[in-house]
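Appendix C. Worked example: Glutamate 5-kinase
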Amino acid sequence: MDYQFHKIAVKIGSNVLTRRDGTLDVTRMSALVDQVAELHKGGVEVVLVSSGAVASGRSEVKPQRRLDSVEQRQLFSAVGQAKLINRYYELFREHGITVGQVLTTKESFGTRRHYLNQRNCMRVMLENGVIPIVNENDTISVTELMFTDNDELSGMIASMMDMQALIILSNIDGIYNGSPSEPGTSVIREVEQGKDLSDYIRTEKSGFGRGGMLTKTTIARKVADEGITVIIANGKRDNILPDLLLRPDETVHTRFIPASEEVSSVKKWIAHSEGFAKGELHLNQHATEVIRGDKAVSILPIGVERIVGDFEKDDIVKIMDAEGQPIGVGRIATDSAEARKQLGKHGQRPLVHYDYLYLD
Ligand SMILES: Nc1ncnc2c1ncn2[C@@H]1O[C@H](COP(=O)(O)OP(=O)(O)O)[C@@H](O)[C@H]1O
Ligand SMILES: N[C@@H](CCC(=O)OP(=O)(O)O)C(=O)O
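Step 2, the predicted output written as structure tokens:
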């Protein structure tokens, strides 16, 4: 088959998998499994990121007392994830395909070592023909440790696994150039690099989702800037996945045009690591201008005015411009005590080497 991509991450949103009453839509799930199986048999490497744990657990248990929102999420996801993966396992087995479960947390992306462990796990699964089915470990990720939603998780997975494309399946055909329910609006088919879509996106979410269209757009842009095509399409449409890969021109969806330059694997990790930053490097005016220029440059101690926080060598730090605004992230080459000693000095080694610097 002439598929346009051979390595893809597919994110299936909560709303695709749940019926209006909140129960698991097994018919839809089964249709999507058939499509993924078809691609897999056609030689496409697929990593699935599936939501639906909380939604599918909700209908299974009746809590004995009033639970707060964290407890509810923990209880429903513990039950619901087991139900979800069990369904997937059985449905894929009918196609002779083995699947495996990967539950992760935002923290597991925080250090390079954990990150590589996860990547290795999924690589070995793929090498052995096993489809990884990834979800956040909702039982233990609470509030500030959580991914914004599974769109963020799927972006990190697509980036980590060096995928050619990330397909985000929701309950809508793509991003509309206005309110989707209003007459006269239509799906934006292509989003060029640097295009601002904020005017179009309403903050409301669909029934069971967590992040909404705004997070999808932010993540999509970031992942596309790393050279990965991002597609937002309707997971409720029949045969959507093969159609997107075989007949993209005739299939409604929004496509984020990827950057043409290659981004190294370590830079991709750094790009998604802002949340783990342990400190800040504040650049002076001249360094800010140089860093913003066209040339690839490292951050030298002479260009740093101030250092905030305590960090170890190889930790992630935020890069701030002369006005104190964040402009990127990088991996620091020395600990904070040593970095402070070098501040403002000439002839020192870079604090952040260009290879480990990601600018927004
Ligand atoms: N401009 C827009 N185009 C498309 N959808 C939008 C737009 N603005 C807001 N939305 C809403 O975003 C919803 C999809 O996001 P979300 O609820 O997070 O779904 P999921 O569970 O699939 O991640 C749509 O159902 C729609 O109501
Ligand atoms: N991990 C959660 C997913 C929650 C979530 O963010 O879902 P979505 O709105 O589809 O991105 C679950 O399985 O219920």
